[in-house]
Design a protein that fits this description.
Helix content: over 70%
Structural class: mainly alpha
Oligomer: single chain
Number of strands: 0
Order of helices and strands: HHHHHHH
Largest sheet: none
Number of helices: 7
Distance between the termini: 165 Å
Shape: rod-shaped
Length: 264
């Protein structure tokens, strides 16, 4: 197979250009990590993160290697690195198949890495700072959005709930104060009367209650006796009728015979 120097030059230049594009892709993935909140702030941004935000009085949290953020950052970083490696491998294979019928040439990966290093050395220095400031801006924006969403609840709490709570506490305080004042007055009256007179009054009240209970008990048994007598008479008359019917003589005939015998 004849090798065309022109195609070889185009292949090597294409490999260098692909390396630059891979550097741009790396920076784009870095920005994606920032957007997905999987970015670790660099050390030179620590002082800015410690400054409180205006109108809020709080600072953007400086998230490093801690808790759930660490797991999320690791997962997003792994996926971004996997995507970057696949993109580089596919780009190199396409170059080799298009310009050299798939035959491997060492110059392709070398120039690809050279273009990637040149991008990292020159432009990525700026993109690192841009990504760091973008991450700080997004963190501050999220804090402002959260404060805006919490503003109606804070206004409701400040305008309605807090005054209502104070009014309720005042009502409870006034009620307890009235009860306490009434108890104090009662105790003062009892103290003015004296302990012996108080005991005498209590005994008289208990005696009056006992007399009322006795009168109620005396009234109730008499009525019960009347009801029992009436019920007993009805039960006896029914029992007499049953006895007479069992003896074979109707109650009316027996009554007439008895009346006749008495007349004779």
């Amino acid at each position: 197979m004849a090798l065309s120097p022109y195609r070889q030059l185009l292949m090597l230049c294409g490999a260098f250009a692909v390396g630059l594009l891979l550097g741009a892709l790396w920076d784009a993935l870095r920005m994606l990590r920032v957007v997905l909140m999987a970015h670790t702030p660099p050390a030179f941004m620590a002082s800015r993160y410690r400054r409180p935000l205006p109108l809020l009085g709080v600072s953007v949290p400086f998230r490093t290697e801690a808790g759930v953020h660490r797991l999320w950052r690791g997962a997003v970083t792994f996926l971004c690195d996997l995507l970057f490696c696949l993109a580089g491998a596919v780009a190199a294979e396409l170059l080799l198949f298009y310009f050299n019928d798939g035959v491997f040439r060492l110059g392709v990966p070398l120039l690809l890495l050279l273009g990637l290093w040149l991008w990292q050395w020159s432009i990525s220095r700026l993109t690192v700072r841009v990504a760091a400031h973008l991450a700080y801006f997004l963190g501050a924006l999220l804090l402002y959005l959260r404060a805006a969403l919490q503003l109606p609840w804070r206004l409701l709490r400040l305008v309605i709930l807090r005054p209502a709570h104070r009014l309720l506490r005042h009502i409870v305080y006034v009620r307890k104060k009235r009860i306490s004042t009434a108890l104090c007055r009662r105790q003062l009256r009892l103290a003015a009367v004296g302990l012996d007179e108080n005991i005498t009054l209590l005994k008289e009240k208990r005696k009056g209650k006992r007399d009322e209970q006795k009168t109620e008990k005396q009234k109730i048994p008499g009525a019960d006796r009347d009801h029992l007598r009436a019920d007993r008479g009805g039960v006896l008359s029914v029992a007499d009728r049953h006895r007479q019917s069992a003896g074979g003589a109707p109650s009316q005939g027996g009554g007439k015979g008895a009346a006749g015998g008495a007349a004779g």
